[in-house]
């Protein structure tokens, strides 16, 4: 499992957050363990002292030492009926360093004492005061060594951390499996469709069909499907336009050959003895020349980019007059209708433009009008 993947990072974050949560509750847990440990020592000391008080005879020193050792304390003091009585005792190895009263100790003080005990490795003798269980007296007091308690606290903390680590790893594995099924699987499906579509964008069978159960992934699938439909439609349209362009190019090629023949014949009309024919022939030659040029431009467009305009400076009025005269000859108004062409252009107006392209523009405007 790589931490560069979604599942890897998801598992790593799960382990980190679970361990962080366990660390945050570690100190309160160890604090409660310390309190339970001290209360257990008080209960054991109470049981040992009550066993001794049940008989009127004194006990042997060996038995007293055994009772104290089993309770894990040095001395036991009971207060009953306002009488303080030393029930069990043994020599203290050192003076008492601290006293802890469990009857009125708040949680903050308990946490402070717990941290102090964990951070202080030197064994000490302490006094612990508490209430006897089952109202067996007013107060019970013991003295004990801190070394066994500190060892038990450390072992408890280590066990808690080990359990937390195992729990976090198990949780991460379960979440990893869930993420693989619920998140990574649908994402990989989307990636697979994207790869297949990139390899064959004109094949509509590679378009994804939204089917994810997660709202976010399904939205991504829907957006991808919409984009794929748009791209596929554009590609098909371009293909149809390319086929149309090839057909137009073939038509233009044949039409150019026909117009070339017509241009040759129109050139011969200029030699006609009829004045009307000679007057009309140049216009016919110009029209055929423009048609040939248009065919050549169409053929060139099918092979490369559209040629740049050939700019030149010329008078606009003769060009417009040529357009009007050609359109008057070609115009076929409906019965009862009249078509008038009116030009209002100064005689000296000169412009810089492509003469043939401007001619086609003006001719199209006139026909559309």
TrEMBL record:
<keyword id="KW-0812">Transmembrane</keyword>
<dbReference type="GO" id="GO:0005886">
    <property type="term" value="C:plasma membrane"/>
</dbReference>
<dbReference type="Pfam" id="PF00512">
    <property type="entry name" value="HisKA"/>
</dbReference>
<dbReference type="InterPro" id="IPR003661">
    <property type="entry name" value="HisK_dim/P_dom"/>
</dbReference>
<dbReference type="GO" id="GO:0000155">
    <property type="term" value="F:phosphorelay sensor kinase activity"/>
</dbReference>
<keyword id="KW-1133">Transmembrane helix</keyword>
<keyword id="KW-0597">Phosphoprotein</keyword>
<dbReference type="InterPro" id="IPR036097">
    <property type="entry name" value="HisK_dim/P_sf"/>
</dbReference>
<protein>
    <recommendedName>
        <fullName>histidine kinase</fullName>
        <ecNumber>2.7.13.3</ecNumber>
    </recommendedName>
</protein>
<feature type="transmembrane region" description="Helical">
    <location>
        <begin position="6"/>
        <end position="27"/>
    </location>
</feature>
<dbReference type="InterPro" id="IPR050428">
    <property type="entry name" value="TCS_sensor_his_kinase"/>
</dbReference>
<keyword id="KW-0418">Kinase</keyword>
<keyword id="KW-0472">Membrane</keyword>
<feature type="transmembrane region" description="Helical">
    <location>
        <begin position="156"/>
        <end position="179"/>
    </location>
</feature>
<keyword id="KW-0808">Transferase</keyword>
<feature type="domain" description="Signal transduction histidine kinase dimerisation/phosphoacceptor">
    <location>
        <begin position="243"/>
        <end position="307"/>
    </location>
</feature>
């Amino acid at each position: 499992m790589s931490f560069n993947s979604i599942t890897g990072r998801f598992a790593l974050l799960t382990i980190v957050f679970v361990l962080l949560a366990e660390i945050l509750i570690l100190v309160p847990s160890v604090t409660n363990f310390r309190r339970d440990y001290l209360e257990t020592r008080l209960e054991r000391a109470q049981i040992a002292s009550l066993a001794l008080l049940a008989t009127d005879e004194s006990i042997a020193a060996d038995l007293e030492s055994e009772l104290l050792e089993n309770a894990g304390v040095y001395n036991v003091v009971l207060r009953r009926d306002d009488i303080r009585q030393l029930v069990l005792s043994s020599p203290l190895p050192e003076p008492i360093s601290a006293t802890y009263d469990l009857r009125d100790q708040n949680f903050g003080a308990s946490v402070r004492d717990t941290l102090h005990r964990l951070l202080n490795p030197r064994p000490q003798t302490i006094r612990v005061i508490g209430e006897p269980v089952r109202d067996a007296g007013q107060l019970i007091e013991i003295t004990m060594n801190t070394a066994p308690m500190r060892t038990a606290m450390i072992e408890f903390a280590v066990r808690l951390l080990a359990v937390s680590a195992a729990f976090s790893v198990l949780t991460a594995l379960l979440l990893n499996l869930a993420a693989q099924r619920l998140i990574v699987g649908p994402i990989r499906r989307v990636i697979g469709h994207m790869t297949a579509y990139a390899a064959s964008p004109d094949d509509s069978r590679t378009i994804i069909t939204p089917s994810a159960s997660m709202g976010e992934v399904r939205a991504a699938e829907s957006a991808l499907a919409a984009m794929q439909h748009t791209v596929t439609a554009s590609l098909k349209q371009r293909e149809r336009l390319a086929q149309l362009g090839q057909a137009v190019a073939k038509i233009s090629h044949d039409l150019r050959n026909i117009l070339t023949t017509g241009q040759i014949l129109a050139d011969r009309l200029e030699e006609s003895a009829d004045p009307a024919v000679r007057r009309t022939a140049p216009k016919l030659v110009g029209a055929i020349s423009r048609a040939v040029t248009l065919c050549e431009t169409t053929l060139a467009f099918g092979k490369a980019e559209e040629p740049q305009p050939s700019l030149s400076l010329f008078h606009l009025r003769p060009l417009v007059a040529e357009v009007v005269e050609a359109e008057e000859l070609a115009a076929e108004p409906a019965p009862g209708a009249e078509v008038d062409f009116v030009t209002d252009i100064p005689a000296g107006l000169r412009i810089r433009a492509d003469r043939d392209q401007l001619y086609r523009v003006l001719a199209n405007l006139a026909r559309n009008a």
